[in-house]
Design a protein that fits this description.
This protein is of the alpha/beta class. The protein contains 15 helices and 14 strands. Strand 6, helix 9 and strand 7 form a beta-alpha-beta unit. It binds pyridoxal-5'-phosphate. The site of pyridoxal-5'-phosphate has 14 residues, from helix 6.
């Protein structure tokens, strides 16, 4: 065979829609290839450890879908999703303090599809979206297809800064029709790891009422809490909030099952848009989820997830305290999967990643979590969900060495007056 199969002539470049040319590939997806090398310890992906799922429970749920409900499982379903599945998910919502009925919910292909559907339904080019800065890069990817102007509000250890949000809102103006929504991940934020305090949640709802904007609450990690008490979701404080849930982190991401809780008017519009996207989600997967959350000891499995991730989170925080140099700071998450690390302003984590890969460690450079890709260059997201405590300790030790090597170099430059300490490179 000639090797011409490798030469790809792309004559479509000029025909591609402007919105696609503006989209950036996900740094995490690009890293997945490297992360599967045997010698690499991956701190990059936010992948749940599905090996913790009891095989018997998964088999039971899957077999029930095939044996008890085969005709429905293999058929098209309604765009909103099976009412039985939605009723089961209402039970999960009740556990976290939110009262819903099946008609308040729509099922989606993971929370990711929900982000795309909401963006497709509401955003015109140039519309304003508010988010935490940095924020989940998959949300930025989903939004960017519809060309919004994303304004980022910084967070601290108590979540999004409400004083800075209010200042931003004053500039945008009350009831500005161009402000489409505020997107937030209040629990164990991705990538920040921080949780919005109850007081700030109340303030956010007050501001949403005062300035007239919609709040989109993305909550994939809320049930993975390792310290402290449960904090009520924003949706429990206001039924105008659009809440996104998913089974990805409490069951399995391979099922691709998420849901939207929203006011009827919002759901009706999203329903229209979803019809054009995929007609309906997978009934088979919906039935598996239904059985998993009714016929298996899923709460015990969730406890196993929580206790395992807690040990890994502790291993990471202990290793950071032990190995990382004093110039570096990081967040201390009470749950979820991620720690956000900030290096001195003059450092660049994308170039650091090349050295880290050589040392056998991956992480996600910080710039991907900003809409312009320019901020966060001295930051990185490290995930503790997937590797063993021993591997996490080893990865942080190696990463500390790589950082220390670069710091040495910069210290020499700073001493020689070649660069300033407070300047981002
Ligand atoms: C904040 C956030 N939202 C949404 C998603 C997407 O989740 P799903 O697997 O349900 O599509 C993720 C996945 O990691 C996430 O971290």
């Amino acid at each position: 065979m000639a090797s011409s199969a490798h030469i790809i002539f792309d004559d479509t470049a000029e025909r591609v829609a402007t919105r696609v040319t503006k989209m950036r590939p996900s740094a995490v997806r690009n890293l997945f290839a490297a992360a599967t090398r045997d010698d690499i310890i991956s701190l990059s992906g936010g992948m749940p450890d599905v090996s913790l799922l009891p095989a018997a429970a998964v088999k039971k749920a899957t077999r029930a879908a095939l044996e008890e409900s085969r005709p429905q499982a293999l058929q098209y379903g309604s765009t909103d999703g099976r009412v039985e599945t939605r009723a089961v998910l209402c039970g999960l919502m009740r556990d976290i303090g939110v009262r819903t009925k099946p008609e308040d919910l729509m099922l989606t292909s993971g929370a990711q599809e929900a982000l795309d559907l909401i963006a497709k339904t509401f955003i015109n080019p140039g519309d304003i979206i508010l988010t935490e800065g940095p924020t989940y890069l998959g949300a930025l990817q989903a939004f960017s297809a519809y060309e919004p102007d994303v304004h980022c509000v910084p967070f601290d250890a108590e979540g999004m800064r409400m004083d800075l949000l209010e200042a931003e809102l004053k500039t945008i103006g009350a009831h500005n029709p161009r402000l489409k929504f505020l997107y937030t991940i209040p629990n164990f934020q991705n990538p920040g790891g921080v949780t919005m305090s109850p007081a700030r949640r109340r303030r956010l709802i007050e501001l949403a009422n005062e300035y007239g904007f919609m709040v989109v609450e993305d909550d994939p990690y809320g049930r993975l809490r390792y310290d402290g008490g449960h904090v009520l979701p924003l949706r429990a404080l206001s039924d105008k909030v659009v809440y996104l849930g998913t089974v990805s982190k409490v069951f399995a991401p391979g099922l691709r099952l998420g849901w939207i809780v929203a006011p009827a008017g919002v759901l009706a519009k999203i329903n229209l848009v979803k019809q054009g996207t995929d007609l309906c989600g997978s009934a088979f997967n919906q039935i598996v989820v239904e059985h998993y959350f009714t016929d298996t000891p899923w709460q015990r499995t969730l406890q196993k997830f929580v206790s395992t991730y807690k040990v890994r989170r502790d291993a990471m925080l202990t290793a950071l305290d032990r190995y990382f140099p004093p110039e570096v700071t990081w967040t201390r998450p009470e749950g979820g999967f991620f720690v956000w690390v900030t290096l001195p302003a003059y450092m660049d984590t994308t170039s650091l990643l090349a050295d880290a890969l050589e040392a056998g460690v991956t992480f996600v450079p910080g710039d991907g979590f900003w809409p312009d890709g320019k901020r966060g260059r001295n930051c990185m997201r490290i995930a503790f969900c997937y590797e063993s405590p021993e591997n996490i300790d080893e990865a942080i030790r190696r990463l500390a060495e790589v950082i220390e090597d670069q710091l040495e170099l910069y210290r020499a430059f700073i001493a020689a007056g070649a660069i300033r300490e407070d300047v981002e490179m």
